[in-house]
Amino acid sequence: MQNICARGIYLSLQHGTSKSCRILHHYHGGYRSVRKCHQISPCGFINRHFKPKIIPAASVLPASFRSTLNCVRTYSQANKKTQAQSTIDEEEIDKFRALSERWWDEIGEFQALHTLNDLRVPLIRDAALSGRDHRDERLALKMGPSPLKETLILDVGSGGGILAEPLARLGATVIGIDATEENIPIAQTHASHDPEIRTRLKYIHGTTDDLVATEAGMFDVVVASEVLEHVSDVGQLVSTCVDLVRPGGSVIFTTINKTWISYMLAVVGAEDIFRVVPSGTHDWEKFIPPEDLERILEQCGCEVKLVSGMLYNPLTHHWSWTDIESCNYALHAIKPEKQTTERGEPEEQVEDVTDSSTEKR
Fold this sequence. Notes:
- The protein is α/β, with parallel strands linked by helices.
- It has eleven helices and 15 strands.
């Protein structure tokens, strides 16, 4: 088994009979410097049939997490009616409102999202771990069955909790936020049946625009999976996601490229031929190329670490990683520890240069 290893990110990506991935080390003005590094890592093994193991909830959450959950709980109670924000598309909200009671039908309209967890849960796990000190790879083994313990994750567009629950089972404290009000009680009810995760899992009705006013820089990881193609302003959503993650934290997106292949697969194939999703679920005009998403993130000061294609087989209902990004793809970026100028230079360095030049004069 070969794994991809680069700067603390460990992924096992399958493409045909080999395993491969695109790791982005540099991206300047559209130029990509891509390197493949194959190593074996104790935290990098990804089984295509990955099923997160249920782990006991911690009896006492860290103080910082309890504080955040209390803030979110207060926010949720004070904002039961959320005003429409710039990223909300009311037509998209109506679509998911009609499907709200089917989230946990694993062979229904959301079957592809359930099986997508085989890829995105390990991706999020490894991205979160990359933000820690992994100079000693044995640290991953010491973490045991709760590798995401003491990790605070925001799941944007959490729906019925399909992604939030397995992340909580890996030890993370997860806040799910969704603009469709009907999704919240469904997600809460489903989580309440599992006492091992319900203390680490909270859902609120709202948008990232609402949350950023009080929770900016609070989260270790912010995830927006299969969300960008359903909002009216991609740039605004990406910007608020970056604002919500802490310096050095990760932002992760999975979405759909805007190509003729994505139209044939995600619209014609998925909706009209194989009926993977209801007709009208996707609007091809809202799809976003990875290059555009990377540019938005770089404008927000983030460094893109990984872009990889994802391929869905409608016959087997399984996902696999691929080098081809023509349809579905995943992207992982890091928010820098220090803010940078438009030139990409640290602000403190710019001030030092200005001071030194003044002294010479």
